[in-house]
Amino acid sequence: MWRPLDGPAEGERCYLAPSTLHRWLDQAGRQAQETLAGQLAGVPICRQVGTDGLWARLRGRMERVVLALVDSVSGVLWPPVVVEGEDSELAWDHLFMRAKRAGLNLQALRGVTSDGNPRLQAYLHGALRWVNHQRCVWHLWRGLGRLFNQAVQHATVGLPRAEAQAAGEQLRRELADLVRRVLDAASYADAEVALGTLKAHRWGAELARTLTANLDAALVHRQDYNRGLMRVAPEWLWRDFRLRLSRGRNHGSDQRLQRAALVWAVYRNFTPAQWRSERKRHYRRPGQSPLAKAGVPPGELSYLDALNV
Question: What is the average pLDDT score of the chain?
Answer without folding.
Answer: 90
